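Predict the 3D structure for this chain.
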Amino acid sequence: MRIVIIVSFLIIVGLVFLAIQVPTLDQKKIDAAIKEAISQSQVATEDEDTVRQTVTLSIDKLEKAQRTRLKYLVSAYLVIWLVFMLYLVRLGRQQQALDQRLAQLEQETSDSGEETMIDSYESIDRTHSE
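Done. Predicted structure below.
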């Protein structure tokens, strides 16, 4: 049970590190997207720098917002994982308690079974001796 919890924790931690890393757009992709947008919208050439600054600023804001959303998402998954692991630990403890109780009942049953067998042998011996 402990091994399962440790392995699942390591998997969750690995997923957290992977999920928090937001893919960033490199400058080449931004430039290509800006040129395509300018050619489609037919913006004047002197406004190209303004468009470039606006797009770059927008991308930065969107990436920052995406990081925040991913942190909330990962936090929610961590809470769900924690609740599930606590539930599994609780089930494991209940199972151990039930196993102990079952062993105790089996022991009591075997002890009382031996006593009844001894009593029956004694009663058979009494009837034969009479």
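Residues 2-129 form one domain.
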